[in-house]
Amino acid sequence: MIRSLLLASAACALALPAAAETVAIVNARIEPVSSAAIPAGTLVIKDGKIAAVGANVAVPAGARVVDAKGGVVTPGLVAAASNLGASEVSGVRETRDDGTGNALSAAFDIAYAINPASTFIPLARDGGITSSAVTPVLSGIGGGASEHADDGVVEEMTAGKVGSGDPPLFGGQAAFIRLKAGAPDIVEASKLAVAVSLGESGARAVGGSRGADLVLIRSALEDARAFAARRAAYEQGATRDFGLSRLDLQALVPVVQGKTPLLIRVSRAADIRQALKLAADEKIRVILEGVEEGWMVAPEIAKAGVPVIVDPQADLPESFEALGARLDNAARLHAAGVTVAINGARDFNNLRQERLNAGLAVANGLPYAAGLAAVTLVPARIWGQDGKIGSLDVGKVADVVVWNGDPLETTSWPLNVFVGGVEQPKDSRQTQLRDRYAKSDDSGYPPAYR
Amino acid sequence: MIRWRNAALTASLLALGLSACATTSTPPKSATAAKPAEKVEAKPLPKGLDGQASTGFPSTYKPFPSRPTAFVGATVLTATGQQIEKGVVIASGGKIVAVGGPDTPIPADVVKVDATGKWITPGIIDVHSHLGVYPSPGVQARSDGNEATDPNTAQVWAEHSVWPQDPGFNRARAGGVTTLQILPGSANLFGGRSVTLKNVPSLTTQGMKFPDAPYGLKMACGENPKRVYGSKGRSPSTAMGNVYGYRKAWIEAADYARRWDDYRAKVQKGEKADAPKRDLQLETLAGVLKGDILVQNHCYRADEEATMIDIAKEFGYKVTAFHHAIESYKIAPLLAKEGVCSATWASWTGFKMESFDGIDANAALIWKAGACVVIHSDDPIITQRLNQEAAIAMTAGNKLGLGVTRAEAIKWITANSAKMIGIGDKTGSLEPGKAADIVVWSRDPFSVYAQAEKVYIDGALIYDRHDARFQPKSDFELGQPGQGAFN
Predict the structure, then answer these.
(1) B 234-263 → A contacts, CB under 8 A
(2) N or C: which end of chain A has fewer CB within 10 A?
(3) Which of residues 99-118 of B touch A (CB under 8 A)?
(4) Tell me: the pLDDT tens digits for B372-414?
């Protein structure tokens, strides 16, 4: 009760965005992503959708005109994997809902944990991000890079019941959110994938070895098949014992049916091969995340038609499974024909880094168009949202960003952010802090009065 | 090294004072005859028992071979506030000898590097690095950054934990980093001594040590010490416990310094004196009180920074810099007045309670208030692109209309950084007489697309993006997947 009251008042405190209107963004370089850039064009938003894009598009009567002044218009950026809305302060356990304890495995559903009032949602929008996949981490052992060595004091502050037993085999189910200010529910889709780790963290989850991890994953998938085939018998207790609970088996059924992918976190080339073999043997869909040594097996990944989510900053032999990490991993994967999405920083609430990560990949050989697609259309496609968002095509939902320059460049920032055709407020907790202290004031009262 | 030089200076001043005293108050002969003071032969203490006489772990760094070189045609950011178009930078004997515009005379006998279209900056300095002490791969066996066994470990020295083969040094060098301050971690109130390194491949840490750089003392405010020790049921477990821990240590240090001063004064006078027993912990703290060792203080919150400044005043030392100073923008005028530097990230925020108020414009607001600001990494990834971190921080200021130029922002990762770790007279800017620590960038270093193409330390080429002969690999990387190549 108290919590919901707090949420309501927080929502009221922030300026609510204007209702959907007809907007014409003029004098812009338009990057539709799905087609070639338009050096000077107009984009029209109507009824929350993209109504027209092109060099010779007329401004509709009554439209609000946004002059981009030679800036760049892109689709809203898509975060390919994050903890946005499910984790506020990573070092404060009470604010972490991005992983489960050992009560649940595949069935853990992050969609229930999304807080639309997270103060980091406006901050992500300030980095041009308008939607995000929210993916669970394995509790107690991270999953993304969820440990921060703040001066070397390792903070193992992942969510869930850390230390209450072995972490579960599966991290749980991913969701997809759209960053609409003031919306009571921002979850666009849920149960989009089941997260699992191979390699070191996967091995740790099951007592130490990759050999155990893969055997148990395959066994779980086999159980899910048997469970799906003999559902009635299972409910009457007439099947053999399964390794996972009913809820976890249920969550894996769409995976074994090929409807929902496994999101596999994996680094080492040999483990990537195991992931590809798992997908082929089990006839399941997979998304690979991390893939630091992906460049070494790029043709195999391309041949399997498996998309990857990479962090282009990862160039350190940070672990014994990422000894081959390289700055041009994304470029090499792309050149081999792999579908590449680029991630921001999962930690430090720094999804704003995503576009700069794409820039870094471009600086290391990824074609510019592929870099832009890696933070828009590709992640939208990976998460099954490309029918609605991810590119500036007529009829798509108007998640649109107007930038004052190259969106992948350090010196640029978003001037206008539209979600579903509605221009979003520009302020955030961070801008409010900034503006409070940027003012000089000789009133004799402390900043709390500003 | 400054530490030893200062010690010598202190000793000679002491001697001067005493001799002055002797000339003005020569004791009457009768007094001497009555009871001669117990004169003893001033015998030096056995090796290792006198901190001032200790030779420590001296730098064995020798600059790599270099030739007099003129870099011609680049846009030069000098880090003295200038941006020179089509500039000329001339290095000779490991030093900068000339910096100027296109009409700068170029001696006939120097190697000319055509840098047309490129940008040149001083070598990047990372004032907050754990390379070597938390190396890659990050395994327990090499986790040497925090002696988390006592809240006060001022006695430990980071240089004794540095693994010079950390592949991270190579990555940082490719990002233009020529100098690093390696710090102990922040588990403790007093983490130990830092060490400043030249980012050159070396078999030993001594071979990387920046000659004559002062030591730093790593201190930590806030959540880490009280969490680490509170969870062990020990003090400190609260912020007030932290402050008690600092004050208690400074009292002991002041007493230790006094005992040594008394001893040395007696020895100078030729009186009999017992040397205090050397204590490595108190020796480092006393070094701070004497001004020889610089306080490098991990401290996120503005109110805690103000408390730390008061503690420094209580005991008569100076806080050189706050690191991770995410809230310095709230008290920037105070920091300007007290002359304390703030080192910060550009955009990390909210990963722990004490970082919840982190904002992108922190650096720019500190700069606007006239206080010293530095962009640091604390991270083996960010250290590779401090130029981009500075760009993000600069942009946040410009978004606010502060008009931060590249000529100013470059100081945040070079000149201010050098000053903050006590080597501002040696490197950090492109001025005649400074070390020829130089980066040639493919383009504007504040661009996401910029690459460090050539990196020089003391005039010697130490990294070349386009020449495999100048892309050193760590021993660890040989025979591994990727063979240490990362770009």
Answers:
(1) none
(2) N
(3) none
(4) 999 999 999 999 999 999 999 999 999 999 999 999 999 999 9
Q: What is the pLDDT, as a whole number, of residue B241?
A: 98
CB contact under 8 A, A315 and B171: yes
pLDDT confidence of A1, banded at 50, 70, 90?
very low
In B, minimum Cα distance to A358 occurs at: B448
User: Contacts of residue A411 in chain B, CB cutoff 8 Å?
Assistant: 391, 394-395, 398, 446-447
Rounded CA separation A414/A411 (Å): 11
Band (A146; pLDDT cuts 50, 70, 90): very low
Q: Token match 């001697």: residue?
A: B15
Residue B231: exposure state from Cβ atoms within 10 A (0-12, 13-18, ≥19): exposed
Tens of pLDDT, residue by residue over A403-446, are 999 999 999 999 999 999 999 999 999 999 999 999 888 899 99
Structural domain tally of chain B?
1
Alpha carbon dihedral A85, A90, A92, A97, in 10-degree steps, equals 40
Judging contacts by C-beta atoms under 8 Å, the chain A residues touching residue B187 are 151-153
Best A129, A410, A440 member to test B by mutation, with max B CBs in 10 Å, is A410
For the question of whether the overall pTM of this predicted structure is more than 0.80, the answer is yes
- Write the ipTM: 0.92
Alpha-carbon distance of A131 to A371, in angstroms, equals: 17
- Restricting to B residues 121-180, those with a Cβ less than 8 Å away from any Cβ of A are 130, 133-134, 136-139, 143, 145-146, 148, 167-168, 171
Structural domains in chain A, sorted by start: 1-76+391-426 (2.30.40.10), 77-389 (3.20.20.140)
pLDDT value for A16 = 54
Domain residues for the domain of B331 are 123-260+273-427
Residues of A in contact with B227 (CB under 8 A): 153
Minimum Cα–Cα distance from A357: chain B residue: B448
Q: Is residue B358 part of a domain?
A: yes
Q: Is residue B314 part of a domain?
A: yes
pLDDT digits (tens, 9 = 90+) for A66-77: 999 999 999 999
Residue A134: strand, helix, or coil: strand
Beta strands A72-75; A400-403: pairing state: antiparallel
pLDDT band of residue A205 (cuts 50, 70, 90) is: confident
Q: B133 contacts in A (CB within 8 Å)? A: 152
pLDDT at A15 (0 to 100) = 52
Cβ density class B308-325: b for 16+ within 10 Å, e for less? bbebbeebebebbbbbbb
Which residue in the set A320, A364, A434 is minimally distant from B487, CB to CB? A364
Return the residue matching tokens 């491949």.
B201
Q: Give the integer Cα–Cα distance in Å for B411 and B81.
A: 8
Q: Is A22 helix (H, G, I), strand (E, B) or coil?
A: coil
CATH number of the CATH domain containing B355 = 3.20.20.140
Distance from CA of B136 to the nearest CA of A (A): 5
In a domain, B415, yes or no: yes
Is residue B46 a part of any domain in this protein? Answer: no
Look-up of token digits 């050149």: A335
pLDDT tens sequence across A167-195 = 689 999 999 999 999 999 999 999 999 99
Q: Do B185 and A293 touch (CB under 8 A)?
A: no
Three-class SS of residue B219?
strand
